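Cu/Pi carrier, Coemansia interrupta. Tokens?
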Amino acid sequence: MFPSAQTLNSAFKGTQKPFVAASPAEKKAFVAHSTVEVNSARYFYTCAAGGVLACGLTHYAMTPLDMLKCRMQVNKNLYSGVFDGFKKVASAEGIKGLFTGGAPTLVGYSLQGMGKYGFYEYFKYLYAGAVGEEAAAKYKTLLYLSASASAELIADVMLCPMEALKVKMQTSSTPFATSFVGGLSKIHAAEGMSGFYKGLTPLWLRQIPYTMVKFATFEKTVEAIYKNILSKPKEEYGKVEQLAVTFSAGYFAGIFCAIVSHPADTLVSKLNNVAKAEGESTGALAVRILKDLGFAGVWTGLVPRIFMIGTLTGLQWFIYDSFKVATGLPTTGGAAAPKKE
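Tokens:
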């Protein structure tokens, strides 16, 4: 999926700057001291591995809330609220029922995280090199937006089959399948490969704006915190302080992500649970669903999703940056505070 290590290292030869080992005097401040060179093949693979952990683990942990959100989108009268939903599902299906769709969630979002974070770092470097250092610095926000959109375009192709299975397992009135593999086989037998990707366009419509907001807002928020709220450059703070900034900026970005992507999220849930009429295209089905939902209907389930995505995004950035710190790499984003005269 990523360019080979040999290709990247040849392309970037002479442009890489190794990290300087941390000084013994810098006991509190965290200074990156990894043997992994920034923007090398190993760097992108390391970021991709961090993305697997960040997205796979957090989405799996949020499965109960996601399951309720999907069911409420498909049938808005099913539960009176989030707590009512938890109570009814736990009573009728047990704790296991709350994690319905957990397997495809873990697999799908691990793959998505690999593509999202790995390719984001890759495209950010690639586009910055294409436009030059001066333009990249001047139009940083545009760089964040374009790199994240490109990364998500690829990541969603990796996610889509698992998302289709997850939604079917979570929203079917009767158990859709008894196993992960059985569910995949059932979709393939009934709809062929198109069954795994009929929700790809709506997924792009949901995830690309979501990810653009997630990465750009995060990067700008981290930069603003170090520049306007904290008194010292990022490098003068320890790991704990830097990771606290990471989580705070991530949660803030997540709130905006949830709002921007929610209508498309509702549509994805409906598309994977509503059968096409004979001869009806996916686009026509989407239009029909949107007409049935109306403006208010596309916002069903927004409150639990804001809580879910805010927490999810904060934790994802925290796990991702923690992984980078553990490998000696710097945390993401942040401009040094200007020196006072």
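The two ends are 49 Å apart (CA to CA).
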